[in-house]
């Protein structure tokens, strides 16, 4: 990928077929608006300093080690060399252990996606694996050492290449049963269920990530712009939660079956006014640029 640096290079192997591959980050947060911590008295950036929890004295870097807490105030100290010795040895090979149906893995196990591409000499072998997986509509489970840890990776065909997604280990995924244990057992039926199904049917569409904006980033960009221009932001509107005794009326209004809804102008498509994610990113970048240009002026003043 031109302009991007590979995060990892190695081999993709199944049986006696192997090819050289590279992993590239598929998702990045580098374009998000970031803030620095500033000393309001001087206008200077604040540096992070580690201090002793008892003496409150700064601790020099050479005296800082990792520690595993046994109980309050008692730790097993682990030095960097001991940690490095526990890192599994890497043979730089994504060894495919099994092929499974594409929907066999619950996406709650998905961690971080990467683009998987062939090196210059492995195009044929790579295409063989990719097209074979496409034809059989399967994904691959592989394991290797990535970024100092043994990882389980789900590999799926994606356009001309492959997507490799790190999978969470089972112990890392919390039980949904525990999360949902307080959800009440309520059965919805009759008119309310029919209205809900009708409303859903009117909202059926397709996922286009370019039409969904990051509203938090947009709000941060607006905040930076307003601060530079000396303006105040509009107050956030309060969200009213539908109460059980008002739920049927709210459903009827949403379905256009009440007089109140007839008096309102018709809504446009779900994403018609959502804006472009790329446009929002451009606004964020503009806010960053404006803030960086204004920073020296504020400090000088």
UniProtKB/TrEMBL annotation:
GO molecular function, one term: double-stranded DNA binding
Keywords: DNA damage, DNA recombination, DNA repair, DNA-binding
Pfam families, per the entry: Ku
Gene Ontology biological-process entries: DNA recombination; double-strand break repair via nonhomologous end joining
Matches recorded under SMART domains: Ku78
Ku domain location: 56-185
InterPro entries tied to this protein: DNA_bd_Ku70/Ku80 (IPR006164), Prok_Ku (IPR009187), SPOC-like_C_dom_sf (IPR016194)
Low complexity bias (residue ranges): 274-301
Region (Disordered): 253-301
Quaternary structure annotation from Swiss-Prot or TrEMBL: Homodimer. Interacts with LigD.
Function per UniProt: With LigD forms a non-homologous end joining (NHEJ) DNA repair enzyme, which repairs dsDNA breaks with reduced fidelity. Binds linear dsDNA with 5'- and 3'- overhangs but not closed circular dsDNA nor ssDNA. Recruits and stimulates the ligase activity of LigD.
NCBIfam families: Ku_bact
UniProt family annotation: Belongs to the prokaryotic Ku family.
Protein name per Swiss-Prot or TrEMBL: Non-homologous end joining protein Ku
């Amino acid at each position: 990928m031109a302009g991007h640096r590979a995060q990892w290079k190695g081999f993709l192997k199944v049986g006696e077929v192997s090819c050289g591959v590279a992993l590239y980050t598929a998702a990045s947060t580098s374009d998000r608006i970031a803030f620095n911590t500033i000393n309001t008295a001087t206008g200077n950036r604040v540096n992070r300093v580690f201090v002793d929890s008892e003496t409150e004295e700064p601790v020099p870097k050479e005296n800082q080690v990792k520690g595993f807490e046994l109980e309050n105030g008692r730790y097993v100290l682990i030095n960097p060399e001991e940690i490095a010795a526990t890192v599994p040895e890497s043979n730089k090979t994504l060894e495919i252990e099994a092929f499974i149906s594409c929907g066999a893995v619950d996406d709650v196990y998905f961690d971080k996606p990467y683009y998987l591409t062939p090196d210059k000499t492995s195009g044929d072998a790579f295409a063989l694996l990719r097209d074979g997986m496409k034809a059989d509509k399967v994904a691959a489970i592989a394991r290797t050492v990535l970024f100092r840890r043994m990882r389980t990776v789900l590999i799926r065909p994606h356009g001309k290449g492959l997507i490799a997604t790190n999978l969470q280990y089972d112990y890392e995924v919390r039980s949904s049963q525990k999360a949902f244990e307080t959800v009440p057992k309520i059965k919805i039926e009759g008119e309310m269920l029919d209205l809900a199904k009708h409303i859903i049917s009117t909202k059926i569409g397709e996922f286009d990530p370019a039409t969904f904006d990051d509203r938090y980033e947009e709000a941060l960009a607006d905040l930076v712009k307003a601060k530079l221009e000396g303006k105040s932001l509009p107050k956030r509107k309060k969200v009213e939660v539908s109460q059980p005794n008002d739920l049927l009326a709210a459903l009827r209004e949403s379905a256009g079956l009440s007089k109140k809804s007839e008096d309102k102008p018709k809504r446009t498509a779900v994403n018609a006014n959502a804006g472009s994610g790329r446009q929002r990113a451009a606004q964020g970048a503009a806010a960053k640029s404006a803030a960086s240009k204004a920073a020296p002026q504020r400090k000088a003043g």
